[in-house]
Design a protein that fits this description.
Layout: H1 3-14, H2 17-29, E1 37-41, H3 47-54, E2 58-63, H4 66-75, E3 80-82, E4 95-100, H5 111-120, E5 121-130, H6 133-140, H7 154-163, E6 166-175, E7 188-196
Parallel strand pairs: 1-2, 1-4, 2-3, 4-5
Antiparallel strand pairs: 5-7, 6-7
Helix pairs in contact: 1-4, 2-3
Bound molecules: S-adenosylmethionine.
The site of S-adenosylmethionine (SAM) has 18 residues, from helix 3.
């Protein structure tokens, strides 16, 4: 059982719900190409994927948590599958775009996932990912940001993506709307776009 199976029922409500998903999707959409299918790696409940679809993108989602996927299947009927991001069920050089939202910070080492992203992207294809998830959260509490080693730290991501043929192309941010509580402000999350060489 995946850890996220236990959180599937309350995941959306405890992560900013539709306002967070909408803000994330707007930012990600601004970095995506028009046309072609977008693969949402670690789609979770599909809440961001559904917003990307509302913005006009064709989206399919994969995740390893059956609990999360049940919610995603309701949002994206016929367009979700159980798959590990380290073994993406797509042909080499077949995808126009891959996105990963609030995913890479969970990994000890993002390289196997980045290798797979680079493999499935067609030349010129785009990989869009959130970065600095935990640092953004710490800042929203007024806590200091250390030199953390999470796999989604921007400097590490740029280095590790370049090593597999993904060059930094653009960046933006989105506000984690709905996450402010007490003295905490809504976090601001970086989003980076890489182009497959
Ligand atoms: C923090 S949630 C983010 C979900 C969604 N992207 C969002 O922003 O709402 C992280 C997700 O990553 C999934 N996950 C963790 N490891 C994975 C892996 N190796 N391959 C695919 N999904 C994975 C979890 O099951 C969970 O649904």
């Amino acid at each position: 059982m995946s850890t996220y199976d236990r959180h599937a029922a309350d995941y959306d409500a405890t992560r900013g719900g539709a306002p967070r998903a909408s803000a994330a999707a707007e930012a990600i959409s601004s970095l995506l190409p028009q046309g072609g299918t977008v693969l949402d790696l670690a789609t979770g409940t599909g809440i961001v994927a559904a917003e990307l679809r509302r913005l006009g993108h064709s989206v399919v989602g994969v995740d390893v948590s059956d609990g999360m996927l049940r919610h995603a299947a309701n949002r994206l009927p016929g367009s979700v599958a159980r798959a590990d991001a380290e073994a993406i069920p797509l042909h080499t050089a077949s995808a126009a775009a891959v996105v990963a939202i609030w995913f890479l910070h969970l990994l000890d080492d993002a390289t196997p996932v980045l290798n797979e992203v680079a493999r499935v992207l067609a030349p010129g294809g785009v990989f869009v990912t959130t970065a600095d998830k935990r640092a953004a959260s710490r800042l929203s509490w007024g806590a200091s940001v250390d030199d953390g080693t999470e796999a989604d730290r921007p400097a590490l991501l740029v280095r590790d993506c370049a090593a597999v043929g993904l060059d930094l192309a653009a960046a933006t941010t989105f506000v984690g709307v709905g996450q402010a509580t007490g003295a905490r402000q809504d976090p601001v999350y970086p989003v980076l776009a890489f182009r497959r060489t």
